[in-house]
C-alpha cells in the first residue's frame, strides 16, 4: 500500500516538476531574473524533504532552538555570543556527519538524526543582521519553504524588523507560520503570558486567525529539564501535523501552493500590464479621433473661406458682366466710337480696358479681405489640432509603474517611449520646416522668406496667407489676361454676344478653378499636417502591437499553468 502511495506521489511530483518548469520558462519569457531564480530554487527542491525554515532576529535563540529540537547531543548549529550564522545552513539526513559547501551563502549539514528522515531544517541569518546580503539571501530561501518557524526573543517579541519580515513572508508568500518564544527561562510566568498574548494579537491583526505559539527554553531542554522546556508541545505538533507519513503529501501541497502564488503574482502583474495596454490603446484612439475631428473643423474653415471668396467673386463679376453687356449694346458702343473721334471721351477700347482694370482691382480688394479673415481661422484650427495632441501626450495616463515588482522593465520601456514621444513632438512643433509644403505649393518662390518671419507651428498663418494669396491672384490674373485678349479689337456691336459669352465662360472657368484649386490645396495641406502629426506615434504604435502579442502569450501560459495546478491540488486533497 505504501509503495502504491509512493508511486502515486511520484507521479504528482513529476507533474508538478513539469509545471514548475513551464513556470520557469514563463519567467524567462517575461525577463524577470529574480522570479527565474526563485522558481529555479523551488524546482531544485521539489524532491527534497519537507522543509522547516527558521527565521528571526539575531540573538533570538534560533540556533539553540534547532539544537534542542534535534536532540542529538551535539551542537549542530554553532551558538556564540556574537552572530555565528553567516550563511544559510540546510540540515538534512545523512548516514554520517558531513558539511557540504554549496556556495558562499549556503551549506548543507548532513546528520544521522531520525527526525531528519522526514523533514529538513534551515537555519537562516538574523532578520536584523548587519552582515551584507543576509536578509536578501533569507528572502530568496522563503519561497521554497514548507513551514516557517518564526523565533522571537521571549522577553521582547515586538521588534519592528521581525514584524516587517513577518509581513514579507505572510503577504508575499502566504506561508504557514508557527511562532516560538525562545528563552522563556529568562522570564516569569506572568510576563511570559503577556508577551505570548501580545504575539497572538499581532498575528491576528495581520491575518492569522488561530496563531500557533510555543514558549520554549532551549537551555532547559538541552540541560535535561524537558518537562518544563516547552519542546514537548513543539514535537507533538510536528508529529500530529507533519511526520508519520504526512510530510510527502504536505510537501506536494506546499509546492503547489507556492507555484500558484508565483503564478498568481504573474497574473496580477499581467492584469495591470493589460490595463495599461488598454488605456494606451484608448489614448491612441483618442489621438486619432482628435485628429479626424480637427481635420474636419479645419476643412470646414476652408469651405467657409471658399464660400466667402466665391460670394465676393460672383458679386463683382456679375456686376461687371452687366456693365459689359450694357456697354456693348449697339447704341452705347456707337456713341463711344463717334465721341472718341470728335472729343476726348474714351473710346470703346479704352472703356473695355477700364472695365477690365476695375474688375481686377475690385476682385483683388474683395479677395484680399476675405483671405485675411479666412486664413486666420484655418491657421488657428490647424494649430489647435497640434496643441491638443501635445496636451494629450503630456497627460497620458500611467498605470504600470516603474517600480512594479515583475514588469518594471516593461514600465520603464513604456516610460521611455512616452518620454521620447513628448520630446519628439515638442521638436516637431518647434521646427518650421514641418509645416511648410513646397511640393504641395509649387511655384511660390516667396514662401521661404516669409516663413523666416515665424517659428515652429506659428508659421502656419504666414504660409497659408502667402500661398492662398498667391494662388488666388494667380487665378484671377490668368482670368484677366484672357479677358484682356478677348476685349482686344472689339469695335462693332455685332461682336457683343461673342464677347459677353466669352467673358461669362472665362469667369465660370476662373470660378471653378478658384474653388477646386484653393479648396484642394488647403485640404491637402491640412491632411498632410495631420499625417505628419500622426507619424510621431510610430514607435508608440509598435509598442502597442508588441504588448498585445506578449500579453496574449503570457495569459495563455499562465491560465494553462493555473488550471493544471488546481487539478492536481484537488486530486491530492
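^ C-alpha cells above, recovered residues below v
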Amino acid at each position: 500500500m505504501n509503495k502504491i502511495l509512493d508511486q502515486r506521489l511520484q507521479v504528482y511530483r513529476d507533474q508538478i516538476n513539469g509545471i514548475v518548469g513551464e513556470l520557469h520558462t514563463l519567467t524567462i519569457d517575461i525577463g524577470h531574473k529574480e522570479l527565474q531564480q526563485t522558481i529555479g530554487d523551488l524546482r531544485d527542491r521539489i524532491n527534497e524533504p519537507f522543509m522547516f525554515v527558521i527565521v528571526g532576529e539575531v540573538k533570538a535563540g534560533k540556533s539553540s532552538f534547532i539544537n534542542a529540537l534535534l536532540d542529538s547531543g551535539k551542537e549542530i548549529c554553532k551558538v556564540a555570543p556574537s552572530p555565528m550564522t553567516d550563511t544559510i545552513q540546510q540540515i538534512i539526513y545523512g548516514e554520517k556527519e558531513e558539511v557540504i559547501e554549496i556556495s558562499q551563502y549556503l551549506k548543507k549539514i548532513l546528520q544521522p538524526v531520525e527526525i531528519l528522515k522526514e523533514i529538513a531544517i534551515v537555519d537562516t541569518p538574523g532578520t536584523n543582521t548587519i552582515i551584507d546580503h543576509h536578509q536578501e539571501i533569507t528572502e530568496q530561501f522563503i519561497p521554497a519553504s514548507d513551514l516557517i518557524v518564526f523565533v522571537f526573543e521571549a522577553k521582547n517579541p515586538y521588534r519592528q524588523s521581525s514584524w516587517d519580515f513577518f509581513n514579507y513572508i505572510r503577504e508575499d508568500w502566504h506561508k504557514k507560520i508557527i511562532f516560538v518564544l525562545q528563552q522563556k527561562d529568562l522570564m516569569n510566568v506572568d510576563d511570559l503570558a503577556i508577551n505570548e498574548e501580545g504575539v497572538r494579537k499581532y498575528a491576528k491583526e495581520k491575518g492569522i486567525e488561530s496563531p500557533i505559539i510555543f514558549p520554549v527554553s532551549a537551555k532547559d531542554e538541552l540541560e535535561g529539564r524537558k518537562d518544563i522546556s516547552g519542546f514537548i508541545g513543539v514535537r507533538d505538533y510536528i508529529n500530529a501535523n507533519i511526520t508519520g507519513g504526512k510530510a510527502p503529501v504536505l510537501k506536494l501541497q506546499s509546492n503547489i501552493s507556492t507555484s500558484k502564488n508565483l503564478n498568481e503574482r504573474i497574473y496580477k502583474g499581467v492584469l495591470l500590464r493589460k490595463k495599461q495596454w488598454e488605456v494606451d490603446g484608448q489614448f491612441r484612439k483618442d489621438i486619432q479621433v482628435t485628429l479626424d475631428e480637427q481635420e474636419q473643423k479645419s476643412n470646414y474653415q476652408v469651405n467657409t473661406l471658399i464660400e466667402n471668396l466665391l460670394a465676393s467673386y460672383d458679386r463683382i463679376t456679375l456686376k461687371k458682366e452687366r456693365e459689359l453687356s450694357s456697354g456693348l449694346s449697339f447704341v452705347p458702343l456707337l456713341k463711344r466710337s463717334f465721341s472718341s473721334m470728335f472729343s476726348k471721351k474714351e473710346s470703346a477700347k479704352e472703356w473695355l480696358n477700364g472695365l477690365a482694370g476695375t474688375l481686377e482691382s475690385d476682385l483683388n480688394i474683395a479677395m484680399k479681405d476675405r483671405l485675411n479673415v479666412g486664413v486666420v481661422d484655418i491657421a488657428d484650427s490647424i494649430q489647435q489640432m497640434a496643441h491638443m495632441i501635445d496636451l494629450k501626450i503630456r497627460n497620458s495616463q500611467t498605470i504600470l509603474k516603474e517600480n512594479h515588482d515583475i514588469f518594471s522593465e516593461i514600465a520603464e520601456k513604456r516610460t521611455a517611449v512616452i518620454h521620447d514621444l513628448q520630446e519628439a513632438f515638442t521638436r516637431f512643433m518647434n521646427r518650421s520646416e514641418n509645416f511648410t509644403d513646397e511640393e504641395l505649393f509649387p511655384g511660390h518662390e516667396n514662401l521661404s522668406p516669409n516663413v523666416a518671419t515665424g517659428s515652429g507651428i506659428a508659421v502656419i498663418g504666414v504660409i497659408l496667407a502667402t500661398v492662398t494669396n498667391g494662388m488666388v491672384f494667380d487665378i484671377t490674373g490668368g482670368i484677366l489676361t484672357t479677358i484682356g485678349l478677348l476685349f482686344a479689337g472689339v469695335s462693332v456691336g455685332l461682336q457683343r454676344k461673342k464677347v459677353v459669352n466669352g467673358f461669362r465662360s472665362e469667369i465660370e472657368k476662373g470660378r471653378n478653378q478658384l474653388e477646386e484649386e484653393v479648396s484642394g490645396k488647403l485640404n491637402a495641406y491640412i491632411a498632410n499636417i495631420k499625417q505628419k502629426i500622426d507619424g510621431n506615434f510610430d514607435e508608440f504604435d509598435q509598442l502597442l502591437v508588441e504588448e498585445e502579442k506578449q500579453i496574449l502569450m503570457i495569459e495563455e501560459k499562465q491560465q494553462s499553468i493555473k488550471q493544471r495546478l488546481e487539478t492536481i491540488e484537488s486530486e491530492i486533497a
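The chain has two domains: 49-245, 269-561.
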